[in-house]
Amino acid sequence: AAFTWGWILPLLGFWLGGHAWVGEHIDLIIVAIVVVSLIPVLIEYLKHRAERKRAAAEAQGEDQGTAPAAQAASGGRHAA
User: How far apart, in whole angstroms, are the C-alpha atoms of residue 77 and residue 20?
Assistant: First the structure.
């Protein structure tokens, strides 16, 4: 795989460098490459954030679910 990349990328750069449009828009091309490269990072971040929110909501639901049981065990009286 490294051998292939070592040959394809320089040849691709040589071929694309001969086109005027590429030379005129190289900044836009680089920005597009960076943005596309960051998409997987953004997706994983959003998945992690959603999972963290879901876990927090479940934990909060469990905390609320145990409160009536504890209150019933004490006979409905509040601890002083």
Answer: 82
Place of tokens 């828009």: 25
Count the alpha carbons within 13 Å of 76 in the hemisphere toward its beta carbon.
Answer: 0
Please tell me the distance from the alpha carbon of residue 73 to that of residue 66, in angstroms, as a whole number. Answer: 11
Percentage helix, strand, coil, to 5, in the chain?
Answer: 85, 0, 15
Q: What is the pTM of this model?
A: 0.55
Are residues 60 and 53 in contact, defined by beta-carbon separation less than 8 angstroms? no
pLDDT, one tens digit per residue, over 18-62 is 889 988 999 999 999 999 999 999 999 999 999 999 999 998 887
